[in-house]
Each structure stands twice: as C-alpha cells, then as structure tokens.
Amino acid sequence: MLPTVPASHFLFMVAYALLVSIVFAALLKDQRREQVRTGAMMFGAFLAAAFVFGWLMYPFPL
Amino acid sequence: MATKSTTAERPRAGAEPWRLALVCALAWLIPGAGHFFQGRRDKGLVFLVTLPLMFALGLWFQGRIFPFEWSDPLVFLGAIADRGIGVPYLIAYFADAGAGRVIAASYEYGNTFLMTSGLLNFLVILDAFDIAQGRK
Fold this sequence. Notes:
The complex is a heterodimer of chains A (62) and B (136). By secondary structure, chain A is mainly alpha-helical. Helix content of chain A is 74%, strand content 0%. Chain B has one domain. Chains A and B meet through helix 1 of A and helix 3 and helix 6 of B.
C-alpha cells in the first residue's frame, strides 16, 4: 500500500524543480563542481520564479 | 570525478549507424544506459536514478499515461512524451498503472511528472547520440 500523496502544491513544485535541475545540470556540465553549481542555481531560480509568479498572481481573480 | 568527460581523454565511440542505433535504443529503454555504454558512468547513474524516480512519482501522484488519441493533438503529444521513458513506461503499461484519477488534487502534477520524465529522457538520448558521434 502506497503512502498518501502529500497535498502540498509547494512540495510538488520543489520535487519537480529538484529533479529537473539535477537532470539539466548533468546534461549541460561535465565537471562535478560545475554540475553542482549549475544545479543549485537552476533549483534556486525555479523556486524564486515560483514565489515571484505566485505573488504576482495573488490578486487574481480580481 | 571517476570518469572524465573531455573528448580528448576518451576514445571516440565511432559513428557507425548500428552503434548509433544501439546507443539510442539503449538510452531510450533504460534512462542513462546510453551513457553507461559509452563509459559516462557518473552521468548515466544520475539519469538512471532521477528519471525513473520522476516517472514513479508521477504515477504515485495519480497522473495518467495518455493513450495515442489522434482526435486530440495535445493528448497525442502527451502520449509521445509519456513513452519517452522506455522500460519504466512498459512496466507501468503491463502493471495497468497510470490510469489517472482526475479528481485527485495531484492529478495534473502527476501528468507533468510523467511527461517531463519522458521528455527529459529524449534529451538524454540526444546527448548519448552526440557522445557516440564524438561531438562531446
């Protein structure tokens, strides 16, 4: 029996951002240090963009 | 890093058509296998862990594996994306998983995880192809 799916949109977004960042970092960079740096930057950018767009959409629907 | 990725230190895999086809087929069937086959173990391991995990999360989130439906182009494209992951898709198919539960709060997230894992594996296949061609 699988555990219950968490009902947190934020957790879904974090999991998605993390996995996509890891794959892109591995694809784009060859050295481990660069991969970690690129992955961390991408992950941070995903989260930052989610917060910014989340707050921008906050007043809608008007 | 155990395996260097510079072209200079690595013998070219060659560009024979059968080898390219083998690399692409392996890379599609098992995410990361195309990289493993060519000695890029670190990258292969990353893809082998993350992409099936992403696909499994999509199933857990009650996403749907879309059927090939010609009448609905977006569903058709989603079906192609879902099948990009290879063996994990086949396992889900034979296990009758991926029916989707539209009323679940996580349904759309599940769909997104399923499709993204397949699409990312298409990029991984292209990367493996480039390595086999000696471009990387």
